Amino acid sequence: MSNLLTSHCLPRQALGADCEREMFALFDAHFVGATPASFRRDLDNKNWVILLHDQANILQGFSTLALYSSEHAGQPISVVCSGDTIVRPEYWGTPELPRSWIRSVLTLSQDMPHPLYWLLISSGYKTYRFLSVF
Question: How far is 16 from 105, CA to CA, in rounded Å?
């Protein structure tokens, strides 16, 4: 198996029902207690999705994002909120997700007010490692 992945960032509304089912199946296989309702609730609160596919175009991972403008202390700011994220263990250590994540966030936020704040809820140590990088 090749560890080569390709990524695509697309608006949440562009996901089809089949893709959403694939995403939930992948998520459900790796998180205890996942339900379609809780997964859908999180997905509906995000406006961007990064999909990771292998060379056979099989979904091997994804991350969801909410990017929005807000205000703090009377000043405009931008916020990125990370949502559900999973990569199949066979693809851990491949650089495509972090590379695509930062490229997507920087591109999507370029016309938004700055500074840009990242709100992160993490259930594992791998995500924490990216805090100092990003």
Answer: 22
3-state secondary structure of 116: strand
Are 49 and 3 a contacting pair, CB within 8 Å? no
Contact 82, 119 (CB under 8 A): yes
> By three-state DSSP, how is residue 40 classified?
helix
Q: What is the pLDDT of residues 87-118, one digit of tens each?
A: 999 999 899 999 999 999 999 999 999 999 98
* pTM (two decimals): 0.89
Q: Distance of CA 126 to CAs 37, 61, 132, Å? A: 26, 14, 12
Residue type, 115: P
Contacts of residue 34, defined as CB under 8 A and 6 or more positions apart, other chains included, come to 24, 27, 28
